[in-house]
Amino acid sequence: MISIENLSVEFGGFTLLNDISFVLNKNERTALVGKNGAGKSTLLKILAGIQHPTRGRVSYPKEISIGYLPQQMKLNDTFSVKEEAAQAFKHLQEMENELEKLHRRLAERTDYESEDYQRIIQRSADLQELLLMSGINNFEAEIEKTLIGLGFSREDFDRPTKEFSGGWRMRIELAKILLQTPDVLLLDEPTNHLDIESIQWLENFLATHANALMLVSHDRAFLDAVTNRTIEIICGKIYDYKVSYSEYVELHKKRREQQLRAYENQQKQIQKTEEFIERFRYKPTKSNQVQSRIKQLEKIEVIEVDEVDNSHLNLKFPPAPRSGSYPVIMENVTKSYGDHVVFSDVNMTIHRGDKVAFVGKNGEGKSTLVKCIMNEIDFQGKLELGHNVKIGYFAQNQAQLLDENLTVFETIDQVATGDIRNKIRDILGAFMFGGEASEKKVKALSGGERSRLAMIRLLLEPVNLLILDEPTNHLDMASKDVLKKAISEFDGTAIIVSHDRDFLNELVTKVYEFGRGKVIEHLGGIYDFLAKKKLENLQQLETSLHSSTLAPVEKKDNRKSENKLSYQEQKEQNKQIKRLEKEIQEIEEKITKMEEKLSSIESELITPEEASNVSLLQSYIDLKNKITITMNIWEQLTLEMEKVQMNMQ
C-alpha cells in the first residue's frame, strides 16, 4: 500500500534516517520502535505527507486514504464532542448537501428529455448509491459507539470540546480518525492518555478494523495485542521483523549477541594483522606480505554493533526509613463537589511494604483520592497516615515544580547523597540525559523531558511511601524498566496510579478499582484483576462495574458491606432500566409516527398525478433514512437494557 524507497532525513550535519526502504502492506499492523530521538515520529510525519525527506520517496496509489494521529493536535473549539467526531463524515454530509441541491434543481425544471436533465438524474442516482454504500444511515450510531468505547459518556456528547483536557481532546481526535476508516492508520503514542479500559477497547478495534497500521508506542502489552510486524530504527538504519513485539525483543537480543561475537572476532583479526604489519614493516623480505595485509585492512568493513542502552543499570532507592505497620488507613472516606459524588465510603488499609495499583476510567477519582492522602483537598471520613510516614509524590504536574534556572545535572545533584553522587551521569544516561543533555537548562526541556527529570529526583529521595500518578506517560521502555526494577526492590510502600499493564505486571499485589463512586479491592496482580473482570471490551466493563464485589474474605463485617454494596448497585441498575425504558418508549412512538407518514407518502406516490413529483420522492427518501437512523438508536438502547437486565440476574 505504501512504498518507502531510499529515504534519508538530515538535520544540519546529523543524519537521522539513512537510505531506508520498506513496504507497508495491507493487513500489516506494524510497531515502529527505537530510542527516543531515533526518528520514529519523523517517519510517521513523512508517511502522512506532513514532512518531506531530504532524499528518497514515498509512493502509494492515489485512492489510498491515510489517517494520522500526532502526539499533539488542535481541535475546533466551536464544536461539541459529537459534532467534532462527526467531522469524520464531513464528506458524506457534503454529498448529502449536493444531492439536496440536485433534487431542488430537478423539481424546478421541466425539460425532462434534455441531456442536462439526464446528467442531473444520473449524478443524483450515483450520489444516492454512494451514500447508501458508505453507511450514511448508521454514522450516528457509529459515532456514539466509538466515543463510548474511548471512555466518553452520553452526557459528554453535547459538551464543547474546549471544556476537556488535552488527554480527552486527543481521544476526540482519535475517535474522528477511527470513524474515517482510512486505508492506512498512523498512530503516534495513542495510549498516552487512555485508561486500561479504553486501551483494551482500542486494541480490539484495531485488531478487527485496521486495514494497515503503523504505530509508535511504549506500551508493551498494547503492542503485543495489536501488532504482527516490528520495524526497529537504530542509528538511522532499520531492521524489519515479521513478528510481534515480544518475539522481536528475543530476536533483537540474539542479533546483538551475534553482532558482538562477529565484532570481537573481527577486532582480533584486525589486531593480528596490525601486529604483523608492525613487526615486518621494515623487512625487505616481507614487503609483499606487508603490502597485502595493508590492502586487506583497507578493504575491511568494520562490523557495527547496535548501540547499548543503559536499562540494565542497577538503580536503587535509598533505604526507606521504617514506618508504622499501616502507612495508610481509611474509614468511610467520601469526596464530593456539590451534588457530584466522586467516591463514597472508601475503606482501605495499606500495609507496610505493599505495592498497590489504583485503576479505573479517567475521572473516577484515582488522582482525587491521592490528593486526599496528600492532604491537598478536603474530604469527609477518617484518613490516617501511619507513624513516621515520609511520602515521595509524583503528580502529573510534577514537572512544573522544577527550578527552571538549574541545569539537568544540578537538579539531580541537589538531592543525590552518598555513593549515588558518583553515578549521577550514569543515572541521567539511563533516562536519556546523557552527554551534553545533562548541561541543558530545565527551562529548555520539553514537557516529557521535565517529567523524566522529576522522576529521577524522586528516585533519589529517602522516603518510605511512594505515590506515583501516571509515572510512565513520558518514559521509553528502557527508562520504564529502570523505574519498575527500582520500585520492585524498594523496601517501602508504593501506590501507583497507572494504565500501563506491562509496567504494573509482577509489580503490584493488590488492585483498587475505581468506578461509579466506589473503590473496590482486588487481591492479586493486574492480570489477575483483568481475568477476574473478563474485560474483553469496554461494554463488558460497563456492565461488570455493576456486579463488582470485594475480594472474598472471611470477616463478617466485610460480607455485610458486600451485601450493602450489592443493594446499592441494584438500586442504580433499577434507575438505569427505568431511564432506558422511557427512552425506548419515546423512540418507538416517534418511529410509529414516521412510519404512518411514510405510508401516507407511499399512497400519494402510486397515483399518476404524483408519480413524477421529485420533491415528494425526496421527502420519501429522507423520511426513510431518518427511520433507519432512529431504528439504529432504538436497537442500541434495547441492547443496553438487555445487558443491564442480564447483569441483575
Topology:
Elements: E1 2-11, E2 14-24, E3 29-33, H1 40-47, E4 55-59, E5 66-69, H2 81-85, H3 90-108, H4 115-133, H5 139-149, H6 166-179, E6 184-188, H7 196-209, E7 212-216, H8 220-226, E8 229-234, E9 237-241, H9 245-280, H10 287-299, E10 328-337, E11 340-350, E12 355-360, H11 366-373, E13 380-385, E14 391-394, H12 408-413, H13 424-430, H14 447-459, E15 465-469, H15 477-489, E16 493-497, H16 501-504, E17 510-515, E18 518-523, H17 526-533, H18 538-547, H19 556-605, H20 614-648
Parallel strand pairs: 3-7, 3-8, 5-6, 6-7, 12-16, 12-17, 14-15, 15-16
Antiparallel strand pairs: 1-2, 1-4, 8-9, 10-11, 10-13, 17-18
How is this structure best described in words?
With 649 residues, this protein is α/β, with parallel strands linked by helices. Helix content is 46%, strand content 18%. The chain has a 6-stranded mixed beta sheet with strand order 5-6-7-3-8-9, with helices on both faces. Strands 14-15-16-12-17-18 form a 6-stranded mixed beta sheet, with helices on both faces. The protein contains 20 helices and 18 strands.
